[in-house]
Amino acid sequence: MASRPGRGLVVAVVATLALAGCVADKHQAQVPTSAATATGAPTPELARFYDQVPEWTSCAQGECATVVVPLDYADPEGTTIELALARHRASGGESLGSLLMNPGGPGASGVDFLAQATSMVSEDVQRQLDLVSFDPRGVQRSSPVACLDGPELDRVTAYDPDYSTDAGIQAAIDVFAEVGAACQQRTGPAIGHVDTVSAARDLDVLRAVLGDDALTYLGYSYGTQLGATYAALFPERVGRLVLDGALDPTLSSDELAEGQAAGFENALRAYAADCLAGAQCPLTGSVDDAMAQIRALLDHATADPLPTGTDRRLTGSLAFYGIALPLYSQPSWPYLTQGLRAALTQDDGSILLQLSDLYFDRESDGTYATNSTEAFWSIGCLDDRQSADPDEMRAQAERIQEVAPTMGSFFSYGGVLCAQWPVPVVGGLDDYSADGAAPILVVGTTNDPATPYAWAESLATTLSSASLLTYEGEGHTAYGSSNACVTDAVDAYLLSGTLPDDGTRC
Predict the structure, then answer these.
(1) Other C-beta atoms within 10 Å of 150: how many?
(2) Is pLDDT of 6 > 50?
(3) What is the rounded distance in angstroms from the CA atom of residue 63 to the CA atom of residue 249?
(4) Cβ neighbours of residue 362 under 8 Å, at least 6 residues apart?
(5) By CB neighbour count within 10 A (0-12 exposed, 13-18 middle, 19+ buried), where does 492 fall?
(6) pLDDT by residue (tens digit) across 296-334?
(7) Which residue, 97, 170, 254, 311, has fewest beta-carbon neighbours within 10 Å?
(8) Do residues 10 and 107 touch, judged by C-beta distance below 8 A?
(9) Alpha carbons 280 and 274: distance in angstroms, whole number
(10) What average pLDDT is seen over the chain?
């Protein structure tokens, strides 16, 4: 299927799982009229949204509220939608303001993320700032995208396309054309307005209704794209932005796919080396031998899906997601070892299927707990459209194969997903430099599988006021899941505005 290595939070297995997905192509940018004047004040048409006072009520997450925003910022007097927020009040008594957060995706629920955030954000920060998270437009509780029922989504996520012929490519395009048609039918007009630029405009409304003059923000993975878009739209409203597990929205779709393929390949090699050095590893020989064994398993699952003890079999696509999920967090590697041992020694795909189900938020009864997969597709296809030309996709697949011979095939032919999406692409911005913004902190992990370190370097260069903090380690994102060096540096920035020294490595 189309390249999508990860797309949300998976609490039970990894500390922070977020996605680098389809990112806005600056060459397709159409920037709507600004929601604010040059001084940051909202336009008269938008004032009623900015002037809202949310009504907070007790909920499982702490306190919850909804905020109304325009469906289309180009028509603020038209249809409106509601955004769901959750808040954990500052524990030290008087709050100094709000820390707005986004866990990634696109498609991950920020409301669901809040409970996990309280174990990731330091106690020092929680004493002084309210933690506030939200479901972006189209996600879970915020006018959610709806496309497929459980059995229909099962079929799509298990689908193994045949890209070896033009007919096979067209068959894959047709599958996702049916998905897009279902999304349009079941979601309605909102399917054309769940893009990242609109979500960034929502972020400014949330900032205002929370009573903050400037945005204090923590974004993971795709959340860094959302934060960078906000900074570019509202540089005068940037307070302290932490962008962890960075995407640079100026990169092309091809660069993103190739970078992610290499990132997961490198993470899998690191896992294989660790596995081979330990006990009970089902892999044998050298690291290269181990990688070949994993590739053979993926090929086997594609040609002859593995039994799982259920009426579902482990296809190649499901096996890929089952392998990819534990790579987001080094402490999760033992789950991958268990899954590979069962598959390689017993022809049993059940553990890898469970990991894949966790990735997709699939419940044991066949329902899906969230709409994260459908939101991922819908947001991604509005932000960008990769080429669906067979020759261009084959050329890219060859480039990806060179840098990722084991995992690369699952990052190729990404153009099929959006080739016949039923609403026009929105695109991103022409300029992401955010000139005039206050200092921004970008955090990158050296062997991050989903958002390669080079992207953090690139985003820190793209944003004119950004500094880069480097975590030397494995896994996706760093703050709250790495070490005290990262925590202390991020805390100092969030609480006092003190940036780490240039070139700081933890």
Answers:
(1) 13
(2) no
(3) 33
(4) 150, 153, 154, 368, 369
(5) middle
(6) 999 999 999 999 999 999 999 999 999 999 999 999 999
(7) 311
(8) no
(9) 12
(10) 91
Hey, which residues are catalytic here?
Answer: 221, 448, 476
Token pair 């940036």: residue: 499
Query: CA distances (Å), 72 to each of 35, 112, 212, 395, 456, in order?
Result: 11, 26, 24, 37, 31
Does residue 239 contact residue 247 with C-beta atoms inside 8 Å?
no
Average pLDDT (255-275) is: 96
Q: Please provide the distance, in angstroms rounded to a whole number, between the alpha carbons at the two ends of the chain.
A: 37
Question: What's the CA gap between 338 and 348, in Å, rounded?
Answer: 11
Rg (CA), the chain: 22
CB 317 within 8 A of CB 157: yes
For residue 272, give the nearest of 263, 281, 264 by alpha carbon: 281
E strands present in 71-214 = 80-88, 98-102, 130-135
Distance of CA 215 to the CA centre of its chain: 21
Q: pLDDT by residue (tens digit) across 403-412?
A: 999 999 999 9
* Distance separating alpha carbons of residues 164 and 161, to the nearest angstrom: 9
Q: Is 359 helix (H, G, I), strand (E, B) or coil?
A: helix
The Cα-based distances of 181 to 123, 175, 223, 422 in angstroms read 46, 10, 27, 6
User: Cβ(424)–Cβ(281) under 8 Å?
Assistant: no
Contact between 98 and 212 (Cβ < 8 Å):
yes
What residue type is 359 in one-letter code? Y
pLDDT, tens digit, for every residue of 196-249?
999 999 999 999 999 999 999 999 999 999 999 999 999 999 999 999 999 999
- C-alpha span between 11 and 115 (Å, rounded): 10
Q: Could you tell me if 456 and 232 are in contact, meaning their C-beta atoms sit under 8 angstroms apart? A: no
The token pair at 366 is 């066949």
The answer to whether the beta carbons of residues 382 and 425 sit under 8 Å apart is: yes
C-alpha to C-alpha distance for 495 and 331, rounded to whole angstroms: 29
Strand partners, 134: 85
pTM over 0.70: yes
Query: How wide is the angle at C-alpha 128 spanned by C-alphas 124 and 134, nearest 5°?
Result: 100
**Of all helices (H) and strands (E), which one includes residue 196?**
helix 196-209
89 CB-side CA count, 13 A: 11
Q: Tell me whether residue 58 is exposed, middle or buried, using C-beta atoms within 10 angstroms of its C-beta: 0 to 12, 13 to 18, 19 or more.
A: exposed
Burial 24-48 (b: 16+ CB within 10 A, else e): bbbeebeeeebbbeeebebeeebee
